[in-house]
Amino acid sequence: MLSEKQMDRYADVLLWGLKTARKDRFKKGDIVAVRFNLPAVRLAEILQAKLLRNGLNPIVRLLVTPTMEHNFYALSTTRQLTFIPPGEKNLVARLNGSIMVYAPDSLTHLHDIDPRKIARTVRSQKNLRDLLNAREVRGTYSWTLCMFPTPALATHAGLSVEEYARQITKACFLNRTSPLSEWQKIFQNAQFIKKWLNSMNVRHYHVESENIDLEITPGDKRNWVGISGRNIPSFEIFVSPDWRGTRGVFYADQPSFRSGNYVKGVRLEFENGRAVKISARTGQDFLRKQLSMDSGANRLGEFSLTDKRFSKINRFMANTLFDENYGGKYGNCHIALGASYSNAYAGDAGKLNAQRKKKLGFNESALHWDLVNTKKKRVTAHLRSGKALTIYENGRFLY
Predict the structure, then answer these.
(1) Which of 14, 87, 223, 292 is most buried, most CB within 10 Å of its CB?
(2) pTM of the model
């Protein structure tokens, strides 16, 4: 699937992403977690060796198998669902980096599990995520993740394993002599686009396509961010808007796998910032339960655009990491329901406490679910001066 040389390049790109995403430089003795599914064990071995050569302390953790994960949700009591292992909080408080290598043997093994049980576990771990977020803001922690080709992913994407691996190779530039040079070019180009977007004084954005008519309010003290090393691959540029200004209709033509459930044809209608009409052609009951997980689950946490000139991804990949970065003919626009990102704050993120977040309209939730539209669209920025400027059309930023 991936050759030894390609995996070595993949590991180099992941380390570039981890270092690029962190404000402070890594130093000798820093702790980096490497989490992986069993099919990706060889890539994890290469990562461990590179981290050791860099003087870092890798903590290597094999993720549970599909059978183990199903057992956990099927057999656990409420206390077991919310159990946090001894030492986990201490590790999170000292962790300096995290690399996740996602290589699932199954995507649908949790289809018969009550989504409320999964949500209970997710909510119980929010304090740990908040602790990592705070460390990331201070510059002492960063993370990145990637995907490794497996038969399960390929089957649900409608591809052969070889075709699936070729999409990963192409998207991450593993077929180039110097993948890092390609990533550095994209990183630099994205800086110009973000600077351009952030120079505008925008009242609201209007997204228009055949099935979308959506207004999004960026809110005060916001920056467009993205292509930061946090995901490999990542070509999206996004903002965490003021959720209270969201109104209109969004439609996701890309299917989505989440917690063992397949959801397709999601249509959301927003009023006063909340999704008040929620439907899907497939997986509607699961969708509605997810969006009732907590008070922020039916509100907007992210608005994102991908330029097709950056992304080589042109197939559905049955995984959000790749699908939210789809390039294809028209790029993609996606929203995320649930949690917002603090790094979109245009100020000292260390001062962005819960009270300040609430005042500015940054959304809080245990959920973060990206829903993707890949169809032809136009995005117009309506400026506070009264002017309107098209910023994105036919899959390209008009910078």
Answers:
(1) 14
(2) 0.90
Is a pLDDT exceeding 90 seen at residue 277? Answer: yes
Indicate the residue type of 171: A
Structure tokens at 276: 């008040």
Cβ–Cβ < 8 Å for 205, 218:
yes
| Greatest CA separation for the chain | 59
Beta bridge partners of 146: 101
pLDDT tens digits, residue range 353-396? 889 999 999 999 989 999 999 999 999 999 999 999 999 999 99
Q: Are 261 and 109 in contact (CB under 8 A)?
A: no
Query: What is residue 376's predicted lDDT score, i.e. its pLDDT?
Result: 97
Q: What is the mean pLDDT of residues 298-314?
A: 97
Amino acid at position 138, single letter: R
User: DSSP secondary structure string, 376-394?
Assistant: -EEEEEEETTS-EEEEEET
The 10s digit of each residue's pLDDT in 323-361 is 999 999 999 999 999 999 888 999 887 788 889 999 999
Q: What average pLDDT does this structure show over 181-198?
A: 96
Q: How close are the terminal C-alpha atoms of the chain, in Å? A: 38
Q: Helix 41-53 vs helix 4-21: angle between axes, to the nearest 10 degrees?
A: 60
Q: How many angstroms from the chain centroid is the CA of residue 78?
A: 28
Dihedral sign of CA atoms 61, 65, 69, 71 in order: negative
Domain 4-177 superfamily per CATH: Thermophilic metalloprotease (M29) (3.40.1830.10)
The answer to whether 97 and 31 are in contact (CB under 8 A) is yes
Taking a C-beta distance cutoff of 8 angstroms, is the pair 379, 333 a contact? yes
Domain ranges of the chain: 4-177, 181-397
Closest CA to 76 of 47, 41, 113: 113
The DSSP annotation for 158-174 comes to: TS-HHHHHHHHHHHTTT
